[in-house]
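Quick check before the chapter quiz. The format below is the same one you will see on the exam, so make sure you can read both the input and the output lines.
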Amino acid sequence: MSVLCLIANPTEPVLTPALVDAVHRETHGEINWLAQGIACEIVAPRAARPTEMAREVIGSAPIDAALVPLANRRKKLLVADMDSTMIEQECIDELAAALGIKQQVAEITERAMRGELDFAQALDTRVALLKGLDKKIVEEVRRERITFAPGGRALIQTMRAYGAYTALVSGGFTLFAEYFAKRIGFDEFRANVLEFDTESKLTGTVEKPIVDKDTKRDTLVSLARARGIIPALTMAVGDGANDLDMLNAAGLGVAIHAKPMVAEQAEVRIDHGDLTALLYLQGYADEDIVR
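Here is the expected output.
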C-alpha cells in the first residue's frame, strides 16, 4: 500500500482543499491533512500512476507530489548532505569569494554537482586555488556567509525526538560540518579535512582519503547495520551527483532542490518545499513537528 503526498512550501501555503479534491478525483484513496495549506496525503490511491496524475492536476502551482510506501514510513536513520541541502550555500564557493575567485571555483563546483567532473579531481583543483587563505578568514566565512536551509533544524529535532539517528555526511569540510551539525542537532558528522601550515594558512590540500559518493553510501549502510536498522527504515537527502548512490541505497532517497540529473534519478524529488517536506513524507503532522 502506498501514500500520495502533496506538499507546498510553508512560506507559500497554496495547497487548497479544492486542489486536493481535484487530485483525489483522479487518484481516489483516503484524504488526510497533515498541515493546512502545506501538506496533505492521500492514502491508498487507486490510480495506476498517481504521482504523474497529481502533477498534471497541480500544473504550474509550486506544490510537490510524491508517492511513498505506507509500510516502514517513519524512518530510524537519516543521512544528509550539507552544502545546498542543510545549508543554503556551497562552502567552497564562499571561501573562494574571500579570495575574489568565486566565479572560477563555482563553475567547477556546478559541473561536479551535475556529474560532469570527477568529484575527487574537482575537489583537489578547487582546494588548490584556496592555498594561502588564513584560518581566521575561513571562520569568518563560516560565521557571516553561511545560512541554514529552512526546515532543517525542525527535520532533525523531530526525527531525533521520535527515536531516529541522524548523520551529516559532506564532501565539504569539517570546519563547516562540525559547526553546523552541532547547531542543527545531528548526532554525528563526517567531512573532508582541510590542511593548514604552521601559520594557520591553507596548504591547498585535503587529507586523504576524501569523503566522496562512496563514503556517503557506505556511511548510510554501515550506520544502519551498526544500529540494527533495516534498509527500509533509512532515509537520505541531497542535491548533487555525489549524493545519488546514497539516495539510491536508502529506503527513501529524497532529492531536494536538486540538479536535474539527480532529481530525475531519485525516488522522490522535492522542488518547492523546504526540509520539513521530509517529515510530511514520513506522515508527521504539523502538531508532531519539534520547532
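If your answer matched, good. DSSP finds twelve helices and twelve strands in the chain.
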